[in-house]
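Lecture notes, structural biology module. Today: joint structure prediction for complexes of two components.
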Amino acid sequence: MIPQQKREIIIPGQFLGDIKHKKAGRGTFVENGRIYAEILGILDERQGQINITPLKGRYDPIENDFVIGIVQEAMPSSWLVDINAAYPALLHVTETPWDIDFGETEKYLNHGDSIMAKVLQVDSEKRIQITLKDYNLYKIKSGFIIDVEPSKVPRIIGKKGSMISLLKKYIKCRIFVGQNGRIWIDGNDEDIKKVVDTIKLIENESLSFGLTNKIEELLKKDAKDVR
Amino acid sequence: MKSDVKLIVDGKRLDGRKPDELRKIKIEAGVLHRAEGSCYIEWGGNKIIAAVYGPREAVPRHIQNPLRAIVNARYNMAAFSVDDRKRPGPDRRSTEISKVISEALEHVIILEKFPRTTIDVNIEILDAEAGTRCAGLTAAAVALVDAGIPMKDIPVACAAGKIDDQIVLDLGKEEDNYGSADLPLAISPRTDEILLLQMDGHLTEEEFEEAFNLALKGCHIVSELQKKAILDKYKPIMEVE
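The predicted structure, tokenised, for the full assembly:
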């Protein structure tokens, strides 16, 4: 593993460098040739490009993200879905795998139903469209949904899914992590509890190094106890 | 207002402060669970909680701005915050303060990132002792940072005033009531841009200049406390290893 420098907390308005020497990336803005931070986050500097990884904040939808949404309202030919972003997302009947007659949307999805979906489109005015037409996207009928901080989702998934496959390896559960900070877990009650505890642990310690190994040891120990 | 009360005795003020000394300030970030961001501040005898909700879709729809977000600050005094019971609900004074705070915050938040939304900032005065608008704005700024809202700077406010013909920093309760002028000031500390400037009472041009510079100095001191409060809240998660 590459030795990493100490992680540093950045607060808005903090001076980060000169535009001549460095490139301003995500979470920064430039004023009079100087780069400043615009959000609370962790400094991430690679090849002269400065990015800020946010610590808090709303989910910012990006196309092709997988998300978990909760239906807010059924309209004659579409649904409004809450995906934890600043705006509700639109799901049109043509973006579902079902053949629905006009005005019969309520028979398929109704207020309060949860769905796994994919972000289809986000336009410049931040209007969001989602779709159910992809591999492994369903209406959720059982299991639990928990909320985590959206900025922590990459850590829960891990590098190339290392963390999440670890969870699936040691605990017999079906897990789906939405990029919007909602996680769906299905299995028996005991296993669900174990997954929830582990995810909370990952969330709390998301900034420490070597977390994947630590979690693996923890899960291994637990698995032995059960046997 | 003229009175017989001596506000400065032997160069010291009623509460023992020097003319250019602030009251005791304690700031704590992230105190509420339901709000996206929050802050609790104790500034002398002022006790204030600020909470930030959003950005979320603005309702009713006609108040939405298709290009940017709306900042909706709400300043409210609790009924028990003053000596006599304050009649609950918005009044002329709180409406004004809500407006000036909203406008001050609008200048630092990067509104273009969230078109068609509102960012709601609730400022609740639990205990009042002069200078609540400054303390409220200071708390609101920390709450906004805690909510992860993109901002160009962390705004900060502080007041100066005139008592017994002397310019002093950060008026206390008696000083505010019996003093001759009060000058609340909010700035963006990185650039020293003025976000809010009001004046109550009379000051000559020289006195104004002096009071303004004193308040500016006070703002920078409070600004450091704000930054420390945010770092204190988020440092511990870095140290779990």
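Point to remember: The mean pLDDT of chain B is 93.
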